[in-house]
Write a sequence for this structure.
C-alpha cells in the first residue's frame, strides 16, 4: 500500500467555509485509505460540521485548533505576522515542522502566498516560488506559471518556472515530455518585451525541458502548450480573463437562449450536452493551484471552491508527495545551477 | 450636408484582398454620400474587382495604383523602407501629403504600425501612437489601449493613452464621461507592477479624464470600464486571449451540441437566438482598431476582415474626421503638457 500523506486543510478559508472544506476532508479520507486530513481552524465549529457525517473515518481526520481567521481583505504580510493562531499560520507551521506534507486553503490568496514563502519556506536553490494554476483547454489542461503576487520577475526566475512546471506536469499530471512555451506577442524569436527577449535564449538553451518557443495568448485555449511560462502580472491577467470571459459568455448564451419560446425549447434539449461540454472546460476538477518550490506543498483553491475542488486538491497533494516532486525539483535545481552561482 | 471625407483603403491587404476591401469601398461609398474612397493597390486587379459592381458610384471611388504588396510575414521596418510602391506605403503617403484623411488596411499589423509612425507621423506632443481596438463586452464595447508593437512603455505614455482613449470613446463612440481604468492584478492602489504603481497616481491626478481606478482582467468582459489602459504587451495578451478563448468556447459548444440526436434537434432550435447573441459579442461591427495620435487616421482591420468590418472602419474614419478628433487630441495635449515639458 502507498505511504500515508498528511494534508492540512484550512477549514476557515473561502466563501464556503467551514462546510465545504470539512465535506471535502470527509470525502477525501473516505475515498482514499492513504490520505490523512488535519482540519485547521476553530475546533467547535469544525466538530459541529463533522457531526453531520456520523460515519466519517475518525482515524484519518483530526482537528487542529486555531482560534483566529485571516479575512480576504486583510493586508497579507501584516495578517501573517499578527494572527499567529490563524488557521493559515497554524496550518502552515505544521508543514514547516514536517508534521504534515501539504496545506490546502481557499482563503486569502495573498496570505497563502506570503505564508508559503515565510512560514513553509523555499526549497534550496529556488529563487521565487510561483503559483501555478491549471487552466482548461480544448485538449485538457495547461499549467500557467506564474500567477502569484511577485511581479517584475527576472529571466532566471522564468527559467526556474519552466523547470518546475515541467516536473509538475510530467509527474503529477502524467504528461510525457510537456511542451514548454513562453507567452509572447508574436511567434518570432525577436518579438517581445525586454523580459521575454532575455528569457527566450535561456529557455532555448535549457536541456532538460522541451521548449517549443513563444505562444501567443490566442493559442492558449486550444492547448498550444502544456507549461505556459510568464511573469506574474501577465499570468494573473490571463487567469482572470479566462474566468471572466468564460463566465460572461456562458451567461450571455444562457440569456440568449431564453429569448424566444422556440429557443427555450431548444435550450432544454441542449442543456445536458452543454453541461457536459462546460464541465470538460473546468480546471477545478483537477484540484487547485500549487505554490511550487516550497519545502512542502501549498495548494490554493478558489475562494468560491466547493468540496469537489478541495477534495481534488487533497488528492493532488497525495500525488505530489508520492511522486516526490520536491525531491525531483531539488535534484533538478542542483543540476541546473550555473558555475557562477555554484561558486557563490 | 456634412463635408467630404477621403479614405484610402488598402486593396491588397488581408486574407480576403482584393475582393472584400473593394466590396467594402463600394458599400461605403454607396451608403454614404460624403464618403470618398481611394483604393490603393494594383490597378488591373482592383478594376477587375470593381467591374463586378456595374452601378458603383464612380464619382466617389478612385484607384491609386501601387505595384507592390507587403506580405504579412515580412519584417515591417525593412518592408516599409524598401517597398516604396506598396499599397501601404503609397496609401499612407497620400495621408501624409493631406491628399486623404485616413487609411484603412487589413494587411500586416507590423507594417501598418511602423508606417503610421514613420510615414503619417505623430501629432505634436504625442509620445507614442497607441493601437486601440474595441473589444466586445456584455454592455457594448470597451477601448483597449495599447495593443501596439511598442512594448516596455513608460508611465507618461499610459497617461496619454488614457487621454486619447477618452476623447475617442466620447466623440467617436458617443459615450459620455467614459470610465477610464488601468489593468491591474488587484483593486487596491498599492497593488501592481512597477509601471502600474507609478502610473496610478498620475492617472488619479489627471483632471480631464474620469479615472475609476484599477480593473482586474476578470471584470473586462462584463464592461467594467470604457477605456482600458495598459502597456502593449499586456494589451496584446488580452486582445488575443479574447479572440482565442471566444473562438474555442464557441467551437466546443457547437461540437457539444452535435453529440446526441436530442441535442442536435435542440441546436437547430437555439441556433437563431445563439447567432444573435454572438453577433452582439462581435466588436468588428464597430470597425477596426485606430492607431491614435497620428497626423491623420490609420485604422487596422483584422487580417481576416470581411467587407462589413472594412466598411464600418471606413464609416469610423468619417466619424473621426467629422468630430475633429485629432484637433481635440492636439488641444488636449497642449493643455496637458506639464510646466517642465513646456520649458523644454
Amino acid at each position: 500500500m502507498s505511504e500515508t500523506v498528511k494534508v492540512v486543510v484550512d477549514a476557515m478559508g473561502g466563501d464556503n467555509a467551514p462546510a465545504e472544506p470539512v465535506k471535502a476532508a470527509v470525502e477525501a479520507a473516505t475515498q482514499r485509505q492513504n490520505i490523512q486530513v488535519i482540519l485547521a481552524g476553530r475546533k467547535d465549529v469544525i466538530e459541529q460540521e463533522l457531526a453531520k457525517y456520523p460515519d466519517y473515518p475518525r482515524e484519518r481526520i483530526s482537528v487542529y485548533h486555531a482560534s483566529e481567521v485571516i479575512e480576504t481583505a486583510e493586508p497579507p504580510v501584516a495578517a501573517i505576522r499578527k494572527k499567529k493562531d490563524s488557521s493559515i499560520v497554524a496550518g502552515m507551521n505544521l508543514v514547516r515542522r514536517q508534521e504534515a506534507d501539504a496545506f490546502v486553503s481557499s482563503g486569502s490568496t495573498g496570505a497563502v502566498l506570503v505564508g508559503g514563502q515565510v512560514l513553509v519556506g523555499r526549497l534550496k536553490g529556488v529563487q521565487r516560488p510561483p503559483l501555478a494554476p491549471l487552466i482548461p483547454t480544448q485538449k485538457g489542461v495547461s499549467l500557467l506559471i506564474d500567477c502569484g503576487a511577485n511581479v517584475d520577475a527576472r529571466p532566471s526566475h522564468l527559467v526556474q518556472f519552466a523547470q518546475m512546471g515541467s516536473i509538475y506536469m510530467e509527474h503529477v499530471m502524467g504528461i510525457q515530455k510537456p511542451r514548454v512555451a513562453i507567452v509572447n506577442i508574436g511567434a518570432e524569436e525577436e518579438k517581445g518585451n525586454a523580459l521575454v527577449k532575455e528569457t527566450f535564449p535561456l529557455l532555448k538553451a535549457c536541456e532538460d525541458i522541451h521548449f517549443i518557443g513563444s505562444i501567443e495568448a490566442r493559442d492558449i485555449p486550444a492547448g498550444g502548450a502544456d507549461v505556459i511560462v510568464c511573469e506574474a502580472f501577465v499570468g494573473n491577467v490571463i487567469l482572470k480573463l479566462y474566468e471572466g470571459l468564460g463566465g460572461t459568455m456562458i451567461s450571455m448564451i444562457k440569456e440568449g437562449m431564453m429569448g424566444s419560446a422556440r429557443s427555450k425549447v431548444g435550450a432544454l434539449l441542449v442543456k445536458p450536452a452543454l453541461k457536459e461540454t462546460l464541465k470538460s472546460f473546468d480546471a477545478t476538477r483537477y484540484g487547485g493551484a500549487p505554490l511550487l518550490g516550497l519545502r512542502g506543498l501549498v495548494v490554493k483553491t478558489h475562494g468560491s471552491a466547493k468540496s469537489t475542488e478541495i477534495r481534488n486538491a487533497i488528492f493532488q497533494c497525495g500525488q505530489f508527495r508520492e511522486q516526490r516532486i520536491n525531491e525531483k525539483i531539488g535534484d533538478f535545481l542542483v543540476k541546473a545551477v550555473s558555475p557562477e552561482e555554484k561558486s557563490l
Q: What stands out?
A: Chain B touches chain A through 60 residues (CB under 8 Å). DSSP finds twelve helices and eleven strands in chain B.
